[in-house]
Amino acid sequence: MNPINMTVNESSPASFRCNASGDPKPVVAWFKGGSQLAAGNRIVIGGDSLTILNTTASDAGQYSCNVSNGLNSHVGIAYLLVQGKKSMTSHEVK
Fold this sequence. Notes:
single chain; about 90 residues; 8 strands; about 45% strand
């Protein structure tokens, strides 16, 4: 049920999945830090999955999925590490 920690290169997408099942069907809410995420711009939420498009350094951190069906609830936690783009420098050769 827990999402898996992930490392991506900056500008690459990152996806988390929080597999949940039950009766009644559970509702999944995604959080970064303590703030609930909403779909839009670079954030895609689809049922039990979260995708962050075109990641930036500010996307790094703790993500959690809160699963609840009114009878039970569970929190899964994963961490995202975003590696910066490597820049190449050129040097004039004399």
